[in-house]
Specification:
Length: 420
C-alpha cells in the first residue's frame, strides 16, 4: 500500500507514464486504490476535525475560565455565546472566587451638598488604584440605603425613600444587572438578611430576621425562595431569645453568616447563656453552635457596644467591641475563630486590638491569605467608618465622602434575571 501511494505521488509529478505503459492493467487498480484512500482519508479527516473542534472548545473554555471578568467583558461581543452559557458562568466563578485578584470591595458612600445622596464605588482588593463609580441600581432616590451581603457575585441591597417605601434589590455590580425583589411582610430596614444558594433545591434563598425584637414571640423571620418569588413566615425557636439590643441604632450584625448549609446569628438561651443560632436552608431545621463563657465575660468597667458572628475563609467567627470607662474610653476589639465547626473547645482568639479611635465598633469583612483581616471601623463619629487591617491602614476611600457600608465580593457573570 505504501508503494502504491508512492506511485500515485510519482504520477502526480509527471513520472507515471513509464509505469502505466509497462503495466496498463494496473492503472485501474491504482486508480481504484486512490479513490479508496480518498474516501478513507475524508472520513478520517472529518473525525479529526470533530475531535480538533471539541478539543479547541475545551481548551478555549479552560483559557477563558481563567481570565478576569474585565478582560472577558471587553470582548463579550466575540465570546457572547460562551459567556452567556450558565455552565461557563458557574465554573468561571468557582475557578476565580478564591483568587485575590478577582476579589472586589464594594462601598456605599454618602455625599453631602450633592444631588446624589449615595454613590456606590468598587475597586480591586489587590490594587486599590482602580476605584470606579457604579451607576445606581434602582430608580428610587433614597435617604436610607444599606448593603446586606453578597453571594456568587450577587449583592443584596436595601434602598428606601422614607416611610414604608422600601425596595429590596438583587444586583450584580460586575455586569450591572439588577432585579427588584418582592417585599416581605415586615420592614426590611429593621432586619438582618442573608443570601445564599441552596444546592439541594438548586435555588437562591434569602432569610430576613428581626434581631431587635424584645422576645422570640415577636421575632419576625421570613424566607424568600427566588424560584417561587414569595416570602414565607417561619417560626422562631421558643428556647432562644434574640440578642439584647445595643445602645446604638445600627449596632449588631451586618448580615447573617452562612456556613455548612445554614445561616448563623447570635442568641440567648432562656437560662441566660449566649449561643449561636443556626438555621439550615434545606431542611429548615434550627440548631446551636456553642460559645465560650470568656467570649462574653467582660469586666463591669467595660461596656459592650457591638458583637456578632461572621465567616472568614470557611471558619465561623465571633467578634465583639467593648469600651473601657476608666481608661479614656479605649475601645477593645476581639476576634475569635472556630477551627473545627461545632467543637466548642476549638474556639481560638485570633485578634485583640485596643485603640482610642475605636469608639463604636469594628467588624471583620475579609481575611487575606496571610491571615490579615480587613476591618470596617466606626469611630467617634459613628455615622462614618473607615477600613483598616489588623496590621495597619487600608486607605482607598475619598476623604470627602462618608462611607456607610462596605463588603467584599468575588466577581461573577451570574445574572439575577435568570434566577427568578
Amino acid at each position: 500500500m505504501a508503494q502504491k501511494k508512492k506511485c500515485v505521488s510519482s504520477h502526480r509529478h509527471g513520472h507515471g507514464n513509464l509505469a502505466s505503459r509497462k503495466t496498463p492493467n494496473k492503472k485501474k487498480s491504482i486508480v481504484n486504490t486512490k479513490k479508496t484512500n480518498i474516501i478513507g482519508d475524508e472520513e478520517a479527516t472529518q473525525k479529526f476535525k470533530v475531535i480538533r473542534i471539541y478539543l479547541q472548545e475545551e481548551i478555549m473554555m479552560e483559557i477563558l475560565r481563567r481570565l478576569p471578568m474585565r478582560s472577558l467583558l471587553r470582548f463579550k461581543c466575540v465570546w457572547k455565546s460562551l459567556i452567556d452559557d450558565p455552565y461557563f458562568r458557574r465554573t468561571h466563578y468557582i475557578h476565580n472566587k478564591d483568587d485575590q485578584n478577582s476579589q472586589k470591595i464594594l462601598t456605599m458612600e454618602r455625599l453631602f451638598m450633592k444631588d446624589e445622596a449615595f454613590n456606590f464605588y468598587t475597586c480591586s482588593l489587590s490594587t486599590l488604584e482602580d476605584k470606579q463609580k457604579l451607576d445606581w441600581p434602582s430608580s428610587c432616590k433614597p435617604n436610607i440605603a444599606r448593603i446586606f451581603c453578597s453571594c456568587d457575585g450577587l449583592v443584596l441591597i436595601l434602598v428606601s425613600s422614607g416611610g414604608y417605601n422600601e425596595e429590596l434589590v438583587l444586583w450584580n455590580p460586575s455586569t450591572r444587572e439588577s432585579i427588584l425583589l418582592p417585599h416581605p411582610e415586615f420592614p426590611v430596614r429593621t432586619c438582618v438578611c442573608g443570601l445564599e444558594y441552596d444546592a439541594t433545591s438548586e435555588d437562591y434563598k434569602i432569610l430576613a430576621i428581626n434581631l431587635n425584637a424584645a422576645d422570640s414571640f415577636y421575632t419576625s423571620i421570613e424566607l424568600l425562595s427566588l424560584k417561587s418569588g414569595s416570602w414565607r413566615r417561619i417560626g422562631y425557636p421558643t428556647s432562644i431569645k434574640p440578642m439584647p439590643v445595643c445602645g446604638f441604632r445600627d449596632c449588631g450584625m451586618d448580615y447573617l453568616a452562612f456556613l455548612h448549609g445554614a445561616f448563623h446569628w447570635l442568641g440567648m438561651s432562656r437560662s441566660g447563656y449566649y449561643t449561636t443560632v443556626s438555621f439550615n436552608i434545606s431542611n429548615e431545621m434550627y440548631g446551636e453552635v456553642p460559645l465560650l463563657e470568656q467570649m462574653f465575660g467582660v469586666s463591669p468597667r467595660y461596656y459592650t457596644i457591638d458583637h456578632g458572628v461572621s465567616v472568614l475563609r470557611g471558619m465561623l467567627c465571633f467578634y465583639s467591641t467593648h469600651n473601657h470607662w476608666t481608661e479614656g474610653r479605649i475601645g477593645t476589639f476581639k476576634l475569635w475563630i472556630m477551627k473545627d465547626y461545632g467543637v466548642r473547645e476549638s474556639w481560638t482568639k485570633l485578634i485583640e486590638i485596643r485603640d482610642t479611635n475605636l469608639f463604636h465598633s469594628a467588624r471583620p469583612k475579609y481575611m487575606f491569605a496571610d491571615c490579615q483581616v480587613l476591618l470596617q471601623y466606626k469611630g467617634k463619629r459613628c455615622f462614618n467608618s473607615k477600613f483598616t487591617t489588623s496590621r495597619g491602614p487600608f486607605e482607598f476611600c475619598p476623604k470627602c465622602n462618608i462611607t456607610k457600608h462596605g463588603i467584599v465580593y468575588a466577581e461573577s457573570f451570574v445574572s439575577p434575571n435568570s434566577l427568578t
